[in-house]
């Protein structure tokens, strides 16, 4: 039951279990030299065994002092440059070159190298007395060729101590001051270990030492007949693994961070040295990918679902460099991939990703950054650069010119795959890398080109894709995911949002959620004026938009935002907190910014706001841009918005879509949402808050628009791993084709001739247009506008679905391909929809408005796998439904019934309880799932709701009277019923 028994167990495993011919040997701590920080005898023996000729030269130079000189030089180099630099480079002096370690050869074609690799001396030493100042000792240390690389402090929980005690030992009994062995970069990593949990640190800093979780999951799984943490010595610290980590993973780098300098009165850049040791999930995903690629070969896709906080840039960097030297087996002379292409969806290359790839570069010239034009990319692809870093946009430009790449193999690593791999960008990428099987001299006919077009969309045997994202969409899972035995698609590897939050790498953005609602009533200005009959849905949207753009609405919302910011947010993060306001449009950016500046001035606040949106907006006869509004508000011309937000003068940023994703500012603590959010966009937007920094312990969301249930529905699929429940039905294409051809607007012959011309060399497009113009003329003769729009909807659906399906299925149907090409250009020739905007500003006015706090909530997610349904196409079948026309006053009354209901917070709580009881009722669930008509389902729903409402008649008559009123009850029933059906996916 003692710590010693724990040490015995680990030492016994390491010294008796070999891997690939290597295993640890036990060395007594007395052989450790405290002055040098080495085991001199081990290093000397290694040099003598592996490099006898160089050792003789060294002896000639230094004579009797050879051993002393060598270990002193080694110790000095480690002290100056750090252990990782020394292990990856040779010791040099007086023309003698000595290798301090031998890494595993990538192939077995060099037996001498393999022999030297097996002569590495790995040692485990217990109770290492490392200090010249005291007799403190470290429980376990690992050495390679006498050079210390890992320290481990163990705690046996059966003796009453745990991980916390081990951390405190490093913090308070392992002061690195005047202790050479404990200096930064002297060891690769320090581990703290108890029976259940592991932590790691690469920098000891007294009481400020931080240990990061190093577990398999949030909680390590039970291991039969062994410790839960046995993976540490069975997987991570085995001889082969340690040497691989030293050679390919551990990274010395610098982290740049911008912060405001009150002394210089500007934003300055501060740099901090880092030593990166791979976290467990990072090591795990790279090694699992290596094994799977060796098993499968090239031409497969891999989805890595790693959320924010996973260290994705490092994982991508390690994968890219790993793939440059990956062979299928030890006898191969040709590596699996000729070129590795790292693609980001941002127009400006990700600087962090670029830096990581370059930092990992151990041979100059391996990484080529494409930061100029597509010609630069074409040249790099042509000469076969090892690693190319570029943006998705550049592939579109060269898709037609890259016809032949000599049958090379490619690994394409995509950062944030869900946005990069949509539609034509993905197709262009594949076309750029496609092999021309026919050669330059042999002419290609129309059918040859067509077959290659089809092939360029589906999986390619010579291209492997590796997609990284934390929020995969259904399309992402089907293209990049793996089909399991149940026919569902899942990620190859996952590091979940839940684990990132639990381990403290990100914050829980749903923990503090406050909901506000606005109620309003409208009135028509002139009741005697003859009213227009207008489309109901469109007018409702216009009326709600009118209310939400009304100066009184914005005034009240800005007042609520500033009240919350001044009283709460501004005091967070030691008084440095910032906020983001997310509004529904660029016009609202302007409206909110003007009102916010006005109210901030009235409150005499010592800070103001910034605004971010693209392009320009006309308002009150003046053109506004983000630049004009920000400079008018005092931001200097040369200062960017991200830098401006670090200035204490600016504490709030107003956005509509710009900066809503991909903007990493840890000081953003609060978000005020006045925009409908859903799905991935919702997750990415609220995740602007989740970055950690010193002093930041929580986040805050205030939402004017979205329901808490909608936010939960958006986050739930990505909380743990995400699966796709099935695959897209390719037969839908044939159904769409049948319906499109049923309009008889063009013939099969016209499609055939169009495609022949399309793929031929031609001087002009005049003949192409001939085959489209006839179809356009026939379309214009359709009498019904609804049928015209239905046809347009059908061809849009076909093109969208075909583009998608041919990425996930090797779909060999030339007729559908021809139709796709034809329809793709026909839809461009069809006249644009005529739409007259409805201006209601002179017809209505805002009669009353109330924006009320509904409540403060902690939104919680379930510990279940998230499920997404396969892609379908809503516009594929069925007839267009004509939008009903109603008088303006009727529409306004309907809106007033809905948004002017006057329900109190207490009423809302009771309604939630009623809904919960109904949704959990087993009999109701059977009725809803059963083979009952829609009428009967709705009847049962209404009867049960009335029965539950009746239970309140004695205890809360006010609630009963309110919800039973004829004007409210149908609306309440509709809202609840439709929400239930959406939740159940019906």
UniProtKB/TrEMBL annotation:
Protein's UniProt name: Type I restriction endonuclease subunit R
PANTHER family: HELICASE SUPERFAMILY 1 AND 2 DOMAIN-CONTAINING PROTEIN (PTHR42927)
Signal peptide feature range: none
Pfam name, any one: SWI2_SNF2
GO terms classed as biological process: DNA restriction-modification system
Helicase ATP-binding domain residues: 293-490
GO molecular function, one term: ATP binding
KW Nuclease (keyword) present: yes
Keywords: Endonuclease, Hydrolase, Nuclease
